[in-house]
Write a structure and sequence with these properties.
This protein is mainly β. 8% of the residues lie in helices and 53% in strands.
């Protein structure tokens, strides 16, 4: 199994919610780190550990971002990180898998399934081997204690309960030195 470090500068962690019952609002987190243990020849044995710094939430609107960081939503002072730790792979093929794991957000841990597509492996211009992955899942934000909302006069609520999470991940292969290999 090969270990790959998530490259924060080439990784996107995005969420999408429905606002006012009919428009989509997107946000992203700009600090994602972690490791992926993955062998393209055996994707069924993959393992993922990832951490998102909740303080880096960015929707492009400062007031909304500050509200999302507050106790009404992510409560970043008390819960500064969002984590995912895989517990297994439910099904896989050479380029697609369903990765099962524990998502911890706002102090609550729930099992989620990520539909993952392996995009490929190649060397970047600096000679580092990198791999690409796309993943998506949907969660009920209220399951994680993110319950703030406003009832609309015409019916419905301001912020949807369902959140779509989209990930575009680039990871760099960790090169093991001869000394590390001898000590393993």
């Amino acid at each position: 199994m090969t270990t790959w470090n998530i490259d924060s500068t080439h990784t996107l962690a995005e969420f999408v919610v429905t606002y006012m019952m009919f428009t989509k609002v997107r946000g992203r987190f700009t600090d994602v780190s972690g490791t992926i243990d993955f062998d393209p020849a055996n994707s069924g044995a993959a393992k993922v550990n990832a951490t998102i710094q909740a303080t880096t939430v960015n929707t492009g609107v400062t007031d909304r971002d500050n509200h999302l960081r507050s106790a009404d939503f992510f409560d970043v002072e008390q819960f500064p990180t969002i984590t995912f730790e895989s517990t297994g792979v439910k099904s896989s093929s050479p380029s697609n898998a369903v990765v099962v794991g524990n998502l911890t957000m706002h102090g609550v841990t729930k099992e989620v399934e990520l539909s993952v597509e392996f995009s490929g492996v190649g060397k970047n211009p600096w000679g580092v081997e990198v791999a690409g992955f796309t993943a998506t899942t949907k969660v009920a934000r209220e399951d994680f204690g993110l319950t703030w909302n406003v009832a609309l006069e015409a019916g419905g609520v301001l912020v949807s309960k369902e959140v779509t999470i989209n990930l575009e991940v680039q990871a760099a292969r960790v090169v093991e030195t001869e000394t590390q290999a001898a000590n393993a």
